[in-house]
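Thread title: Can someone regenerate the structure for this chain?

I was given the following input by a collaborator and told the matching structure tokens would be attached. They weren't. Posting the sequence so someone can regenerate them.
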Amino acid sequence: MLAPLIEHDLARDGDLLDVLAAALSHPANRTAAASASHLSRSVFYQRFAQIERLLDVDLDDGETQTALHLALLVRRSSGR
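Best answer:
Regenerated them for you:
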């Protein structure tokens, strides 16, 4: 599920996985998510939209948020 973001981050030394984690940690407050990502709101929103495009998902959907959060937790628990 996270493969497009992982590939993007590896190829471009990106931070999309971190941005996704911040967005999922603050699902109702994108300002807080941007702050947690150490990004301006405008850059955060650009990355947020890029994540939606790469994964072909709506990050405002609760089921999508849950699935992605679980995928991030599994990735972290496997030491990646």
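The chain has a mean pLDDT of 96.
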